[in-house]
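Chapter summary example: a protein plus S-adenosylmethionine.
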Amino acid sequence: MAVRKDTIFEQFLAPIFSNFLMDREALLRYRNSKDWEVEGDRFRQPDLAYPAYYSSQHFHGIEQGYLCADAAVTYDPVTKYVLPPNEEWIRQGLIDRIRCQPRRILDLGCGTGSTTLLLKKAFPQAEVIGLDLSPYMLVVADEKAKKAGLAIEFRQGNAEQTGFPDASFDLVTASLLFHETPPEVSCTILQECFRLLQAGGEVLILDGNQSSLRWADWLTEIFEEPYIKAYAAGSVDAWMGAAGFGDVRTEEVWLLNQVTRGVKPIPYQSVQFEPPEMNQTIEQEWAMG
Ligand SMILES: C[S@@+](CC[C@H](N)C(=O)[O-])C[C@H]1O[C@@H](n2cnc3c(N)ncnc32)[C@H](O)[C@@H]1O
């Protein structure tokens, strides 16, 4: 697996993950079970340009970051250990805070689709789309959905500029995306969420708890998370308000994570109350005198 040699991850954590926590042989068998380039071609959009913040980083100490098969192969086995006390409970924290009955859902930065699958299970009648920049992550997501018998559409695209029409969704979500994007990109993504939602639609962002992450500088180094420090210093709550959302609220989820929810306001229309017919009747009555 193409893990970089010069990181703390390589020196300390990779051996633990690969030899003790993960079944290395099983992972290698899975990686060798398919041609990832051919499978990835099912999702690749020829006109897509990868943003510099994304293609320049070796996220999690993996060479080429998300733009290689190793990222997709190792993502689920590692993630279950970095979301204590239980990955599914934390993802469920987002599902539990959805208040609408959505008909069309977009999951941004869907990765291997773990939250996307939960969304489809929670709202089986809804059309669910998962969007991600990495074709390799989408290969895994699509495979998981098919295995679970869930009809979900997975597409390659940039959450900053998705290309979907205005007001075409009533729920937009992102889980574990914002700690991997510079704050200005997160703000652009929230503006895109605002554009994509119908009035009254909801946005929900699940990620690390910004207050508790502020002391955890070492995470940046150990897990090679290039933007997590800037993420922790910011406020998803404030970014969401700045994008135009109302009713914004952040709640802690199992101490180390948070869900921020906002609603696209329904435009206020001032109604002029004029009872002309009544006036007419009174005037007519007076005239008739
Ligand atoms: C930490 S993973 C989270 C995956 C998944 N949402 C989850 O909860 O496990 C971050 C994902 O965001 C994707 N990503 C990063 N920037 C993106 C962007 N601008 N547009 C779409 N996907 C993006 C990455 O490719 C990666 O799959």
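Key point: Residues 1-12, 280-289 have pLDDT under 50 and may be disordered.
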